[in-house]
């Protein structure tokens, strides 16, 4: 038989866990609008760096929008924001690649890493850093 004190501690711990699971995630940060910055190793010329413009459209935690490079390439994406974590991606069916951007929102800046992968083999083909500001 489990001693009464241990049983109470287990029940209280379970109650705390259950209550914390029902807590709201907090206020969603609004990042909608135009952001400008750069991405490293993103293009196949020079040092691979390019200026990027990201336009976010936001509905609560859901993101959509576009990323445009200084070379004129434009990509439409979907994604999400959870607290200050930003994630968005797009798939290019012409060459079977996917692009995934993860970042952290801090003040007026979002920065993180990006990766381009092969959709068939899951191999990372390219990756780099990115940062944008308002």
Task: Give a description of the structure.
Helix content is 13%, strand content 54%. The protein contains 1 helix and 8 strands.
Keywords for this entry:
mainly beta, single chain, globular, 13% helix, eight-stranded antiparallel beta barrel
Question: In summary, what is this structure?
Answer:
The protein has 134 residues and is mostly beta strands. It is 13% helix and 54% strand. It has one helix at residues 4-21, and strands at residues 33-39, 50-59, 62-69, 74-82, 85-92, 97-106, 109-118, 124-133.
SSE order: HEEEEEEEE
Sheet having the most strands: 8 strands, antiparallel, barrel
Q: Order of strands side by side in the largest beta sheet? A: 1-2-3-4-5-6-7-8
- The pLDDT mean sits at 86
Query: What structural class is derived from the secondary structure elements?
Result: mainly beta
The fraction of residues in strands falls at: over 45%
* Multimerization status: single chain
Radius of gyration: 20 Å
Helix content: 10-25%
How many DSSP H or I helices? 1
> pLDDT below 50 for ≥5 consecutive residues: which ranges?
none
The span between the termini is 62 Å
Helices and strands in order:
Layout: H1 4-21, E1 33-39, E2 50-59, E3 62-69, E4 74-82, E5 85-92, E6 97-106, E7 109-118, E8 124-133
Antiparallel strand pairs: 1-2, 1-8, 2-3, 3-4, 4-5, 5-6, 6-7, 7-8
């Amino acid at each position: 038989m489990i001693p009464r004190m241990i049983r109470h501690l287990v029940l209280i711990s379970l109650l705390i866990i259950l209550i914390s699971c029902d807590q709201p995630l907090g206020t969603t940060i609004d990042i909608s609008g135009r952001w400008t910055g750069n991405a490293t190793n993103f293009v196949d010329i020079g040092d691979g760096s390019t200026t990027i413009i990201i336009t976010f459209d936001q509905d609560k935690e859901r993101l959509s929008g576009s990323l445009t490079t200084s070379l004129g390439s434009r990509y439409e994406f979907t994604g999400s924001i959870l607290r200050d974590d930003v994630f968005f991606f797009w798939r290019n069916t012409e060459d079977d690649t996917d692009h995934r951007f993860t970042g952290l929102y801090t003040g007026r800046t979002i920065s993180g890493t990006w990766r381009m992968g092969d959709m068939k083999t899951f191999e990372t083909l390219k990756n780099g850093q990115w940062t944008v500001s308002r």
